[in-house]
From TrEMBL:
Keywords: Periplasm, Signal, Transport. Gene3D superfamilies: Periplasmic binding protein-like II. Residues 1-21 form the signal peptide. Part of the ABC transporter complex UgpBAEC involved in sn-glycerol-3-phosphate (G3P) import. Binds G3P. It comes from Neorhizobium galegae bv. orientalis str. HAMBI 540. This is sn-glycerol-3-phosphate-binding periplasmic protein UgpB. Its main location: periplasm. GO terms for cellular component: periplasmic space.
Length: 435
């Protein structure tokens, strides 16, 4: 009997030691200030408890992280947790390499997540497939100092106002009134979502794999043609038009007065503006006559990969629980400008007494933008090979910006090439039901 008791105690101690010694890996794709913030959270988690240890491994970019994770999964040498960006959602859902996070953590109050973040990563049954993490959305940045020099005392809220302000800035001698990079995320995805426009049929693929692109027939075509015309007029600049060679760098240097950019750009802008200019951040502009809907969540979410033992899964759950804490989200927002992902964080910020602090400027406005009334076409994008499509869209529209072809031809070509990807994806997963 005594031997049995001692054996049982030894087994329990061995299990406890094993749990303490477990080292789970979290792969992420960010660099710069965001990577610094991620590492800080990893260190904070390891310091807060002793049962689990997380090793956070940077992969340099979202795309590289995605490729390496899939290769590692095939080799059975993959991490427990992987950060994937928004465009890879459907690929991950159908990969059979991840476990829906809501199945692993069924008791979490997932409905506390902001609507715009939930919808993008939800299954058709309303369950979260991944835990939203570094959430961004599109915001409108202005150099208030430069606008006021040109006699513009109110921040523009419509595209008509933006261009009116741009003409005043140009007349006042400003060389770069408004800047963008023409990126797919900004000029197609976020524009379509907040204007209630479809990017593809079948509600952007949420209703089936047999979707086809339709953006070339929506108001997106007019907006992109406007950008071409405004650029010719000297009101809008792209990356290559700026001295800095990059739209955010050009805005942060004071070269450009207005910018549509990710909320994740906020930290760099505030640092660059400190002591030089006054920064304002607002929701992205709308065209008059359109009702505002939610902007999409950008950035990335965290998936739990299959093929790990229970101790590792428990470590993953503990780390995900830690990241959801309001104080952790607040610290991450303050360090990066990314938007909190749960609604309770705004209450925590208000109670902290720092609600009006610059470090939280993107929190309220970002959540407000993503919590605008949704439509069936503003939930998100559930289209196969979408990472590759983004590259096609940029390639074709850049031809229009450089004068090689009309914008309509560019969009028609992008639609045709994009549909070829969708049809190939549909054949790859023929007979598979969307989760």
């Amino acid at each position: 009997m005594k031997i049995s008791i001692l054996a049982a105690a030894a087994a329990l101690m061995a299990g406890a030691c094993s749990a303490q010694a477990a080292n789970i890996e979290f792969w992420y794709g960010n660099t710069g200030p965001v990577e610094t913030a991620i590492k800080a959270q990893c260190d904070a988690f390891n310091a807060a408890q002793t049962q689990h240890k997380v090793t956070c491994v940077g992969q340099g970019s979202y795309e590289v992280s995605m490729q390496k994770a899939i290769a590692a999964y095939r080799a059975k040498n993959h991490p427990v947790l992987i950060q994937f960006f928004d465009a890879g959602t459907l690929d991950l859902m159908l990969s059979n390499a991840v476990v829906p996070v809501q199945e692993i953590l069924p008791d979490v109050k997932w409905d506390s997540y902001i609507a715009g973040a939930r919808a993008y990563y939800e299954t058709s049954g309303g369950k979260l497939f991944a835990q939203p993490y570094n959430a961004s959305t599109l915001l409108f940045y202005t150099n208030k100092t430069e606008l006021e020099k040109a006699g513009i005392m109110q921040t523009p809220t419509t595209w008509e106002d933006v261009i009116d302000a741009a003409r005043k800035l140009k007349a006042a001698g400003h060389a770069c009134p408004f800047v963008t990079d023409g990126d797919t995320w900004r000029v197609l995805e976020q524009f379509s979502a907040r204007h209630g426009l479809p990017i593809a049929s079948r509600h952007n693929g949420y209703d089936g794999l047999d979707a086809e692109y339709v953006f070339n027939t929506t108001f997106v075509a007019k907006h992109l043609q406007n950008l071409v015309d405004w650029r010719k007029e000297g009101l809008v600049k792209l990356n290559a038009d700026t001295k800095a060679g990059n739209y955010t760098a050009a805005f942060n240097a004071g070269e450009c007065a207005m910018m549509e950019g990710s909320s994740g750009s906020y930290a760099a802008s505030t640092k660059a503006f400190d002591g030089k200019y006054q920064l304002t951040v607002n929701m992205a502009p709308m065209y008059k006559g359109y009702e505002r809907h939610n902007t999409l969540v950008g950035g990335a979410s965290i998936y739990v990969m299959k093929g790990h033992d229970q101790a590792e899964v428990d470590g993953a759950k503990a780390f995900l629980d830690f990241l959801r804490k309001p104080e952790q989200q607040m610290a991450f927002t303050a360090a990066t400008g990314y938007v909190p992902v749960t609604n309770d964080v705004l209450d925590a910020i208000n109670k902290s007494g720092d609600a009006k602090a610059a470090k939280y400027a993107t929190a309220a406005i970002g959540i407000e933008s993503m919590n605008q009334p949704p439509t069936a076409d503003s939930r998100g994008i559930r289209l196969g090979f979408y990472v590759q499509f983004r590259e096609i869209f940029m390639e074709e529209t850049q031809k229009a910006f450089s004068g090689q072809q009309t914008m309509q031809v560019s969009l028609d070509n992008a639609k045709k090439r994009g549909d070829e990807l969708l049809h190939r994806f549909e054949q790859t997963y023929k007979g598979v039901k969307l989760p």
